[in-house]
């Protein structure tokens, strides 16, 4: 599959994704469960506090954990941090606040995405896809590169390459990463090498566009 082919790919939520949800307000938790099940997700566990969420995530090993930020016993950010450190599953944060400080804290806790209440299915599904895809990308890079400094360097190159593919082929961010990952496997190259090739090709195309057109005939010599 070429990068151009990816732009025609149908992006649908995986119907087998197993989810644990943690929300201390029972009505919101029920609404969330109904939204997920209507979209084909399977809710395998429910919790009313962060400590129970960590316990369920550890026992059930779901594909995704959705956590409310404000919960008793253990808040959602602390729970997300524990789940992230144990490499259990991606986490998606629910919050009634949209302050930048909270976004930064969620990111530092290892959350892959977040959505602000009130939300509906049109908000929820893209956030889930983003969380799962970012987590898969992170794990793939970690498996390929053991050295932290090299991992960070590769991550930066892959991000730049994704941007090139998104700009030039109209791919989504997850589709761009999948193309890099598949090309890496098909050509038996590291993702870093593929990313470098994409960036180099993109720069070459940009330079070609900026180059002045050659004159159709030599300029007349001055008398």
TrEMBL record:
The modification 4-aspartylphosphate is found at residue 68. Keywords: Phosphoprotein. Residues 138-199 form the ANTAR domain. It comes from the Bacteria. The keyword Phosphoprotein applies. Residues 202-223 are annotated as: Disordered. The keyword Ribosomal protein does not apply. Residues 18-132 form the Response regulatory domain. This is Response regulator.
């Amino acid at each position: 599959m070429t990068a151009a082919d990816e732009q025609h790919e149908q992006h649908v939520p995986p119907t087998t994704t197993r989810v644990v949800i943690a929300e201390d307000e029972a009505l919101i938790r029920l609404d969330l469960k109904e939204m997920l099940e209507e979209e084909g997700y399977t809710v395998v566990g429910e919790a009313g506090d962060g400590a129970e969420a960590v316990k369920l995530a550890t026992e059930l090993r779901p594909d995704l954990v959705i956590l409310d930020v404000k919960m008793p016993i253990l808040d959602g950010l602390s729970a997300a941090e524990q789940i992230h450190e144990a490499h259990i599953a991606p986490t998606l944060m629910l919050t009634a606040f949209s302050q930048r400080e909270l976004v930064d804290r969620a990111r530092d806790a290892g959350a892959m995405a977040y959505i602000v209440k009130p939300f509906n299915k049109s908000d929820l599904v893209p956030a889930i896809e983003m969380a799962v895809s970012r987590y898969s990308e992170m794990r793939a890079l970690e498996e390929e590169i053991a050295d932290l400094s090299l991992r960070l360097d590769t991550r930066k190159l892959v991000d730049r390459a994704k941007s090139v593919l998104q700009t030039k082929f109209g791919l989504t961010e997850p589709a761009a990463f999948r193309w890099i990952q598949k090309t890496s496997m098909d050509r038996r190259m590291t993702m870093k090498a593929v990313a470098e090739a994409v960036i180099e090709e993109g720069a070459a195309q940009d330079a070609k566009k900026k180059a002045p057109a050659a004159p159709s005939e030599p300029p007349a010599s001055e008398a």
